[in-house]
Design goal:
Blueprint lengths: L9 H22 L5 H14 L4 E2 L2 E7 L2 E9 L1 E3 L3 E6 L6 H14 L3 E6 L9 E5 L3
Parallel strand pairs: 5-6
Antiparallel strand pairs: 1-4, 2-3, 4-5, 6-7
Helix pairs in contact: 1-2
Length: 135
């Protein structure tokens, strides 16, 4: 798979991430916290597809070493418009390990924007972590 790292402007990425967050709030308000991650993943994929966005799940994030693609990669929960990685959680608290995982994805993919969304919170605002590389 060819990764589409530089095809979208900052404004387009912000538009896509706004739709992702909008859909996440809708799902959280209807289902609440404490379901399995897979349930939120399926619902978010459904909602984003309804917005007309291209969504893949799960997808493998390839690992390159010295210009060679290593035979294994990381599994990414959702890939939106081939440019935004989304890692979903349903945990009591986001830890530094979860954030490090997202930073690793950001570094390996060379995408500009990744989202970490933890649905197991009372207020979804407290469960969204947005990580951005320089544009």
């Amino acid at each position: 798979m060819m990764w589409n790292q530089d095809c979208y402007s900052k404004e387009q990425l912000n538009h896509f991430s706004g739709k992702i967050i909008e859909a996440s709030f809708k799902i959280h308000s209807r289902l609440g916290p404490d379901l399995l991650e897979k349930a939120y993943e399926s619902c978010l994929k459904y909602e984003l597809t309804r917005f007309g966005l291209n969504v893949e799940s799960p997808t493998i994030l390839p690992v390159y070493y010295e210009e060679n693609c290593v035979d294994f990669g990381y599994r990414v929960d959702l890939l939106v418009e081939n440019c935004i990685l989304i890692e979903l959680k349903s945990v009591e608290k986001i830890t530094s390990l979860h954030e490090a995982q997202l930073l690793t994805y950001l570094k390996l993919s060379k995408f500009k924007l990744d989202l970490l969304i933890n649905f197991n919170v009372i207020r979804l605002n407290d469960g969204i972590k947005r990580m951005v590389q320089d544009f």
